[in-house]
Amino acid sequence: MESELHIENQIDLNSALRHYFGFDQFKGEQEAIIRNVLNGKNTFVIMPTGGGKSMCYQLPSLLMNGTAIIVSPLIALMKNQVDAIRGFSENENVAHFLNSSLSKGEIQQVRKDIQSGSTKMLFVAPESLTKKENIDFLTTVEISFFAIDEAHCISEWGHDFRPEYRRLREIFQKISNVPVIALTATATPKVQYDIQKNLNMLDADVFKSSFNRDNLYYEIRPKRDVEKEIIRYIKNHQGESGIIYCLSRKKVEEIAELLQVNGINALPYHAGLDAGSRARHQDMFLMEDVEVIVATIAFGMGIDKPDVRYVIHHDIPKSLESYYQETGRAGRDGGIGECVAFYSYKDIEKLEKFLQGKAITEQEIGRQLLHEIVSYAETSVCRRKFILHYFGETFEEKRCNEQCDNCRNPRERTEGMKYVEMLLNAIVLMDETQKAKHYCAYLSGHVTADIKAYKQDQFPTFGIGKDKDEHFWNAVIRQTGVGGLIYKDVETFGTLKLTEEGRAFLKNPSSFMLIKQHDFSGTDDDDSIVQVAGKGGAFDEQLYDLLIDLRKTISKQKSVPPFVIFQEPSLRDMCLQYPITMDELTNIQGVGTGKAQRYGAPFIDLIANYVESNDIERPQDMVVKTLVNKSVLKVQLIQNIDRKLPLEDIAKAQGKTFDDILDELESIINAGTRVNINYYINTILDGENQEEIFDYFSEAETDDLVTAYHEFDGLYSEEELRLMRIKFMSEVAN
Questions:
Q1: Rounded to an integer, what distance in angstroms lies between the CA atom of residue 621 and that of residue 458?
Q2: Strand partners, 121
Q3: Which of 322, 355, 480, 645 sits in a 20 to 30 Å window from 56, CA-based?
Q4: Helices vs. strands in the chain: H and E counts, helices first
Q5: Inter-residue contact 632 to 640 (CB < 8 Å)
Q6: What is the pLDDT of residue 168?
Q7: What's residue 170's pLDDT?
């Protein structure tokens, strides 16, 4: 690289940009930020992924004397950034990283290059920066400034909190008294203040770009038939790069293998892989030798691949910040970026369980962050507006241009003034001291332990909105929040408080349109297969009605409840796939060979006639090959049941929970395989109780457990009812 340019207040930064990087102009506020750093001021940058944060410290480091210290959280991220900078320079030593992956000899070479003045940027992990030998060395060389990339790691309220980040200020002071630039793509006002306070830079000049990424499309889908949906989606986007995020390493490995056996060029990426494999997989993705990376959140921070066309969340993340940052890896070149997330209540329950055993404050923060992502997933308002509101930005939803599922397919709106009044009055009545869940219970008339303890069930307005359930009241809270009438006080972990607009509304109520909320009940396990209408094809309501009528006729002929023949998710899948042969019918959710042969003939006859009469163009057949290990586990489960092993012991042996085993059994039964668990049921229910529950399912209109639970007034547990439903379906349906 040529000799450095002299720093002057009026330096021609455009020339410097062209000189070093070959770009003709800056993005957004890059130029103002760089001038601020050159002028020796503390700088705080909040800029969305793809906005060009790295340029804000790369260019000033090249223009200033000394070496810039850049704190970065991941080894993979450092390698990626160093490679990118070296690609712009003739000097191989212009950038180095210092972390645990280097040998002693390599560390000595890095130090030599810094002392010689040829290294302008040194990327370090916070753990490396705390080592005494590194601190001692860095005090002997000239430091131009400190940069903290992914600065949200400092805040406990950030989505990727790292305790070692909170020591950075004291370490900086030991090394050199130079300016600091902190950068992040995601910071709510609370996180921003937390970062600045911790770094002792409340005086910093703040540069905050809009969080709006107008080229991204946001969509939430119910987590039904998730594996088939993902494979269908990828096959519809062949030749395009994509990332799939999963919460666990195990799920990453499973999904990557599943994609591979279905002919998709995919690789896994997670912290459990050795460093060499991670680097290789990352490079193959960047070089487009691989189409899809399946990853935990360990992948992607700062990965500079501009043409990622889609980001899929197999599991909903732990916070809205995580979601925003991960989706931000799509469309960084300004082109199309689709962000599809699969959501189920069950995933949220799993995330809540992860919080157990942590410090109380950490649990409270975790629950509050979870509540926000649930609100986002379930909201019916413009998703872009919801995200931007969360980050403290106002947005007119008409500007979304149908770039989210809620704007593309708007839901019904109804006048909600009276409900908003009820909510605001309840908040005032309780002195703004309670969280959303409490108000939902209070308004719907649900007596919780807290409501009983406070004797609030004796208040005149208790249950004033009992004609609506808690799900509805949650939607009212979300929409009044986005509408600016209430806010969540983060200092008290999410208690609801009125804004000035909210107080004005109570004095003079006016129209407030509520959007009908989504219903995510009935989502399934990852292993079960239930089709949902999506981009793969339109749901055929007319055919569905015909299939329902046929099922009713057959149920009367055979004197069994309709759900015994085919359950509704199976009928729905038929309305998407149009199976017209026995083989095709066995590819439908919940239909095994046995069930197809027993009940299938009239259904495929009806569908074949319907397809011909209506000139239906059937979607291309989509058969997802399953992983062998799953089939092996199912065979083992059946064999262990044949040996009459206790279900708890089977679960333990397979590394699963008892619920997982029941889910697996339901999947096997619904597909038409008969399983005898009488030996187990006999240990928990006597013959009379079994007969009573069996008779109930024989006459019931639905196999819904909640309905059954209420029918028996809670006499039987959910577990007992599930076991008896398995017995019933096995004996009657198969």
A1: 59
A2: 68, 95
A3: 322
A4: 34, 17
A5: no
A6: 87
A7: 86
Mode of pairing for the β-strands spanning 513-515 and 413-415: antiparallel
Are the beta carbons of 389 and 395 closer than 8 angstroms?
Answer: yes
Summarised one tens digit per residue, pLDDT across range 229-272 is 999 899 999 999 999 999 888 899 999 999 998 889 999 998 88
Contact between 278 and 286 under an 8 Å Cβ cutoff? The reply is no
* pLDDT interval class at 432 (50, 70, 90): very high
CATH of 417-510, one of 3.40.630.30, 1.10.260.40, 1.10.10.10, 2.60.40.10: 1.10.10.10
Axis-axis angle for helices 13-21, 30-38 (nearest 10): 100
**What is the pTM (predicted TM-score) of this model?**
0.58
- Portion of the chain with pLDDT greater than 90, in percent: 34
Residue 60: per-residue pLDDT: 95
Domain boundaries, the chain: 13-208, 216-397, 417-510, 541-613, 628-733
Secondary structure class of 551 (helix, strand, coil): helix
More confident residue, 597 or 465: 465
Our CA dihedral for 597, 599, 605, 607, rounded to 10 degrees, sits at -110
> What single DSSP character describes residue 73?
S
Just give the CATH number of 13-208: 3.40.50.300
Q: Estimate the crossing angle of helix 30-38 against helix 55-63, to 10 degrees.
A: 40
Q: Which CATH architecture has domain 541-613?
A: Orthogonal Bundle (1.10)
Q: Hey, what CATH class is 216-397 in?
A: alpha beta
Pairing of strands 513-515, 266-269: unpaired
Predicted local distance difference test score (pLDDT) of residue 567:
84
